[in-house]
């Protein structure tokens, strides 16, 4: 067996892409998208029909004079449309992200998540096959706690610190996505080192710590390592509940016939849970005390917002072009 086949025996492999063709090739259990991936996908020719359908739907459900708002609505519909297409290829679930501009607004995050689930329901997709991706801010975790109680399962993303992981577990979220590669990026820049191995990779060590904490204390929240920079990081975390991997690294694993590294331990000794839950003040203090996590969380939100806005600009441009064509055809 190649390394990808071996990895699938120990972890659920998730495709970190919105590219239908890549998902069809690597046959992952689940798939996950984000604004950056959707922006890239929207530029591929195979998505033109979905974009046209999303724009038509948005025009039907919104005031035609506000082009920006129509494009925002079309972006929501497109995310669900691509997610629905992906679910025809994977047996598990797809993750669809809440607008990152709402990362510090609990109520708006809840409302956006409900809208996504409603659109999936209209497309005939049961909520059990969808994970709502939310940034791991205090407000995002609070929103996820409410949504989980409603039966809307959540994937807490942009997770860089131990306190974020603890708060997510205590909130009862379905899944977390700790970002391995982005943690490594920060430490490389901060230390000037460029020789980290899989065994001293700060991102790998962070996920190992979180995984041990969850398993030793009986938390059911799934740990899904994300944002990998190389296959060494992936191998070091083999055995993690799930691993979301880009098509490029999936290909490298598929082409490698060697034996997969040992990865995570299969058994963890039981330890007691904390007597009291992590409160907001302590959460914010711990996050603030972690320079890497504070900087990468803020950067991640900014980048997702930027790509969300780029996607909406692309959709707005297509909307305007479509209307100009209609005007010329029907003067």
TrEMBL record:
<keyword id="KW-0704">Schiff base</keyword>
<dbReference type="InterPro" id="IPR001585">
    <property type="entry name" value="TAL/FSA"/>
</dbReference>
<dbReference type="InterPro" id="IPR004730">
    <property type="entry name" value="Transaldolase_1"/>
</dbReference>
<dbReference type="GO" id="GO:0004801">
    <property type="term" value="F:transaldolase activity"/>
</dbReference>
<dbReference type="InterPro" id="IPR018225">
    <property type="entry name" value="Transaldolase_AS"/>
</dbReference>
<protein>
    <recommendedName>
        <fullName>Transaldolase</fullName>
        <ecNumber>2.2.1.2</ecNumber>
    </recommendedName>
</protein>
<comment type="similarity">
    <text>Belongs to the transaldolase family. Type 1 subfamily.</text>
</comment>
<keyword id="KW-0963">Cytoplasm</keyword>
<dbReference type="InterPro" id="IPR013785">
    <property type="entry name" value="Aldolase_TIM"/>
</dbReference>
<comment type="pathway">
    <text>Carbohydrate degradation; pentose phosphate pathway; D-glyceraldehyde 3-phosphate and beta-D-fructose 6-phosphate from D-ribose 5-phosphate and D-xylulose 5-phosphate (non-oxidative stage): step 2/3.</text>
</comment>
<dbReference type="Pfam" id="PF00923">
    <property type="entry name" value="TAL_FSA"/>
</dbReference>
<feature type="active site" description="Schiff-base intermediate with substrate">
    <location>
        <position position="133"/>
    </location>
</feature>
<comment type="function">
    <text>Transaldolase is important for the balance of metabolites in the pentose-phosphate pathway.</text>
</comment>
<keyword id="KW-0570">Pentose shunt</keyword>
<keyword id="KW-0808">Transferase</keyword>
């Amino acid at each position: 067996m190649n390394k990808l086949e071996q990895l699938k025996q120990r972890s659920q492999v998730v495709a970190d892409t919105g590219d239908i063709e890549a998902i069809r090739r690597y046959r992952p259990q689940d798939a996950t998208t984000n604004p950056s991936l959707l922006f890239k996908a929207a530029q591929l020719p195979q998505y033109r029909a979905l974009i046209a359908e999303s724009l038509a739907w948005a025009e039907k459900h919104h005031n035609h004079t506000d082009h920006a708002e129509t494009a925002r609505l079309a972006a929501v519909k497109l995310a669900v449309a691509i997610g629905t297409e992906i679910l025809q290829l994977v047996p598990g679930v797809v993750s669809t992200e809440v607008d990152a501009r709402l990362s510090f607004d609990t109520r708006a995050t809840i409302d956006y998540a409900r809208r996504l689930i409603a659109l999936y329901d209209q497309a005939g997709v049961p909520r059990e096959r969808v994970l709502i991706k939310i940034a791991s801010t205090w407000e995002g975790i609070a929103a996820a706690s409410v949504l989980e109680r409603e039966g809307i399962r959540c994937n807490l993303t942009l997770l860089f610190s131990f306190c974020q992981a603890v708060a997510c577990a205590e909130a009862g979220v379905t899944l977390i996505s700790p970002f391995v590669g982005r943690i490594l990026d920060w430490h490389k820049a901060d230390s000037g080192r460029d020789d980290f191995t899989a065994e001293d990779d700060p991102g790998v060590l962070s996920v190992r710590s979180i995984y041990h904490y969850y398993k030793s204390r009986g938390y059911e929240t799934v740990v899904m390592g994300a944002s990998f920079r190389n296959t060494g990081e992936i191998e070091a975390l083999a055995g993690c509940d799930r691993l979301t991997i880009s098509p490029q690294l999936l290909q490298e694993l598929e082409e490698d016939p060697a034996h997969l590294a040992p990865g995570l331990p299969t058994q963890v000794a039981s330890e007691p849970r904390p007597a009291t839950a992590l409160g907001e003040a302590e959460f914010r203090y711990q996050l603030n005390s972690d320079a890497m996590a504070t900087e990468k969380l803020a950067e991640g939100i900014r980048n997702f917002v930027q790509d969300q806005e780029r996607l909406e600009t692309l959709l707005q441009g297509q909307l305007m072009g479509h209307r100009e064509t209609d005007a010329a055809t029907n003067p």
